[in-house]
Amino acid sequence: xxxxxxxxxxxxxxxxxxxxxxxxxxxxxKAAAARMDQVMQDEWGEMLITGWNKAxxxxxxxxxxxxxxxxxxxxxxxxxxxDTLSIKVYQALASALDMRPDxxxxxxxxxxxxxxxxxxxxxxxxxxxxxxxxxxxxxDVAANIxxxxxxxxxxxxDYRTGRLHDMKRLxxxxxxxxxxxxxxxAHTAGATPVDLSGANVDFAVGCTYKYLNGGPGxxxxxxxxxxxxxxxxxxxxxxxxxxxxxxxxxxxxPGAGIERMRVGTPPVLAxxxxxxxxxIWDMTTMDDIRAKSIALxxxxxxxxxxRCPDLSLATPxxxxxxxxxxxxxxxxxxxxxxxxxxxxxxxxFRAPDIxxxxxxxxxxxxxxxxxxxxxxxxxxxxxxxxxxxxxxxxRVT
Length: 397
Ligand SMILES: *Cc1c(COP(=O)(O)O)cnc(C)c1O
Description:
The chain is an alpha/beta fold. It has 2 domains: about 5-30 and about 285-390, Aspartate Aminotransferase, domain 1 (Alpha-Beta Complex); about 35-280, Aspartate Aminotransferase, domain 2, CATH 3.40.640.10. The chain has helices at about 5-10, 30-45, 50-55, 60-70, 85-100, 115-125, 165-175, 270-280, 285-305, 335-340, 365-380, 390, and strands at about 10, 20, 30, 80, 105-110, 130-135, 150-155, 180-185, 205, 220-225, 310-315, 325-330, 345, 350, 355-360. A 7-stranded mixed sheet has the order 4-10-9-8-7-5-6, with helices on both faces. The protein has a 4-stranded antiparallel sheet with strand order 11-12-15-14, with helices on one face. α4 (about 60-70) runs parallel beside α8 (about 270-280), α5 packs across α6 (about 115-125) and α9 packs parallel to α11. The longest helix has 22 residues, at about 285-305. The protein is globular, with a radius of gyration of 22 Å. It starts with a helix and ends in a 6-residue tail after the last helix. The mean pLDDT is about 95. The structure holds pyridoxal-5'-phosphate. Pyridoxal-5'-phosphate (PLP) binds near residues 86, 115 and 220. Pyridoxal-5'-phosphate binds near residues 113, 155, 186, 187 and 207.
């Protein structure tokens, strides 16, 4: 069993703050600063350019990818780090479309994060081959997986409601009609157990600054199923995805397997911060995380529903159908969230009316959940949100 008291002690959590926004940006692992300092001084500082060989910077994207693979049920050697999630969505989608040249439909749902949809739109325009982005309600995805579909582009956990798609069933359905699947694990990796290999997923992508605590702008990851690894054509054919980058050939030849999904120079410093976060992930299992996550989200729902009748639950009540977040709808949700933040309870707001709270077992415990619910109760009961200063929208909500 994971020692969650120990894992909590390994994060820097500001005094007086209950941090329920680790689903958006995880907190700072205490060891990250020393690790960054070591990479800067001992590697960048002393080794200079020889660090690419001596400090293993060149292998870092696959070495770190293997540590992520363990958390998402991927085969070792089939995950690589780099770029941002939006870029990795584009890459995976382009490769998948290339493998289904006779089909024109990309199927997604209205619960998907807009960047995924925007990247699909942009790709369709660049390809200029009349692809169609078909966006249906989350509940209607299964019924819309027809033999017109080239690829499904689905985010497993809905960023607003926390609703969880059935990855295995939808992947089976897609394969039954000859479609491929791209799964976005932005709100899955480090939040809920997932078995990419067992579910027979084709492509998966995700970010590392949310539940995985890699820090703002931490690099994304991409998974390509072993059966596609030697066939997938990388649309973003950068030199570090080339089979022999230092041969400096004039033509592109894709690298072996997942290496071809690399694009350019890896973010060595950002990956070092992520590695110190992954050291904490080595102390737990996704099954332990899931059990505690369900206990925390269930407790929060129970406490808030008992105390705050004006809030309505937007997250599935059945724990099996939700990720690791809880959302409530409230007409004045933005102001109420600002009032909460002023009291040290940090969650976030998603338009039009969703107050969103992330539950992250590595550093949130039952006492935090109860304290947060008590403060929320005070704000609701005494209309403390009804204050002009809480109603002015900031750039990032
Ligand atoms: C957070 C998130 C993103 C963000 O993409 P970046 O390129 O990392 O900014 C994209 N898609 C989903 C589903 C997300 O949840």
